[in-house]
Amino acid sequence: MKQISFQMTEKGGNGKDNVLNVGEFNLLEKGLTSGRSIFLKAKLSIKLDKDDYRMQRSVDSMSKKVIILGGGPGGYVAAIRAAQLGAQVVVIEKNELGGTCLNRGCIPTKALVAGAETLAKVKHAEEFGIKIDSYSVNLAQMMERKNKVVEKLVTGIHFLFKKNKVQLIKGTGKLVSPTQVEVAKADGTNETIAGDAIIIATGSEPAIITNLGYDGETVYTSNEALQLTEIPQRLLIIGGGVIGCEFACIFHELGTQVTIVDVMPTILPMQDQDTARQMQSLLKRRGIEIKTKVKVKEVRKTAGQVAAVLESGEELVADRMLISIGRSLNSQGIGLEEAGIELGQRGEVVVNERLQTNIPHIYAIGDVTNKIQLAHVASVQGLVAVDNIMGKERLINYDVVPSCVYTLPEVAGVGITTQAAKEQGLEIASAKFPLLANGKALAMGEAEGFVKLIADPKTGKILGVHIVGPHATDLIAEAALAMENGITVEQLAETIHAHPTLAEALMEAAEAIHGKAIHI
User: Fold this and answer.
1) For residues 203 and 45, which has the higher predicted lDDT (pLDDT)?
2) Which long-range contacts (CB under 8 A, 24 or more apart) does 461-464 make?
3) Sign of torsion, CA 421 422 424 426?
4) What one-character-per-residue DSSP string does 73-127 give?
5) Cis peptide before 409 (omega within 30 of 0)
6) CA separation (Å) from 181 to 77, 167, 185, 341, 366?
7) In the prediction, which pLDDT does 304 show?
8) Mean pLDDT of 132-137
């Protein structure tokens, strides 16, 4: 027997070798003579228990260097996972970690929504036997709280980067070759970095329509709306999609007279038709003016006011105007075309189900792929891309993606809509359970809305779930879990749901598919 000792190391951030494992094994000598060299090629799998996450990493993966352009919800999640799997990771971000979602989108708007919800409860407190003589709105304090929430979460990402040894470079990155990125750093210097794999996660920005008079002050986008110092008396919102409706609800509760204008037949056109109609009716009932099937022909600005002239000739006058009609992709000026990366008609980076571009070691995730512009989709795309980079084949599936609208009340949906089923010629069965028949919703004083379930009438497979009502954005998780795991209508209906809960409405909607709901 020949006994061979070995020691494995990896390069640490300080340039020194860190010991990974020390061990020994016996080699059965078969006619070996002294002086002969023995070459061993082995792949070592080490199981680590780190924060309750069991990981396997190999010698091969430890040498990978991954460069990520963008530190948003796709980029920073991909960075942490790649580091967990043993890669050397560099993230290039010109602004703050967290991207649009954390700094100028999801989180700050939800902080303001929370304020609006609290104010709505104050207004209706007397219905619960609570008398409030007076109240006032301090916008500056609301904005300060919003900023603190954002700051806390951004600080958390910086901590996670440090914990996982992810290198952050502040600056603007540009591909100068299929393997190299040049960074114009925040300190004015330039640095070129080479990597084994590159992930493009540059996101998107609010679309600025110049002929609508955008100036960032009287006419602005969601970016500026999150930095307001005073509440406008009258606000005109161009676009009745998710962003437009969320801001409409926020400012309406703050006392603003809000008008939504949209060229589509209804607001929230991407949601199920019953959801969109219900929300349009509820918002109108609460005093938000909604004009659909109309187009803005011209925008005129005078001192402190803005007027939108519709094609019909009608003129809508407001103190401020919010443009919320889409987003533009951040794919220009970062060297994609020079590197030979294929772009689509809207400038999106074309990727396959592994999130690879036409250059196999370059990946793209998030809004810049123009698949589904949601933060949680970007995060999952980041995980899928990293798995493929690190040698584990994984495909992305967009069939079960929850969408959430943080209006008052909330809206959420997953899977197919009624109109999509009709367009595809699918035979479906559908049922709605009204929250007026749900004990918890009535007790909360928030019984406006419903749960709608769409299923295959032959197999019982759940094809879609759509919710209007309190905590809809939380309830949709059960529906997504059921669909992802092939739960049928019967299985959902037979699952015991606690009483009284809003979740019972999901169970009763499933029962209603076969006309067996107890409470309707």
Assistant:
1) 203
2) 461/486, 461/488, 461/489, 462/415, 462/487, 462/488, 462/489, 462/492, 462/510, 463/415, 463/416, 463/421, 463/426, 463/428, 464/272, 464/413, 464/414, 464/415, 464/416, 464/417, 464/421
3) positive
4) TTHHHHHHHHHHTT-EEEEEESS-TTHHHHHHSHHHHHHHHHHHHHHHHHHTGGG
5) yes
6) 20, 15, 12, 14, 19
7) 85
8) 95
Tokens standing for 34?
Answer: 């002294």
Phi, psi at 235, each rounded to 5°: -125, 125
Distance, CA of 498 to CA of 517 (rounded, Å): 16
Whole-angstrom distance, CA of residue 296 vs CA of residue 310: 4
Q: Which of 31-35, 341-345, 384-388 is predicted least confidently?
A: 31-35
Identify the CA nearest to 6 among candidates 85, 59, 64, 75: 59
Q: Which two tokens stand for residue 492?
A: 């959902």
Residues contacting 82, CB < 8 A, separation 6+: 64, 66, 68, 89, 386, 389, 390
Which tokens sit at 119?
């104010």
For residues 408 and 283, the answer to whether their CB atoms sit within 8 Å is: no
Enzyme catalytic residues:
499
pLDDT of residue 38: 37
Check: CB of residue 392 under 8 Å from CB of residue 385.
no
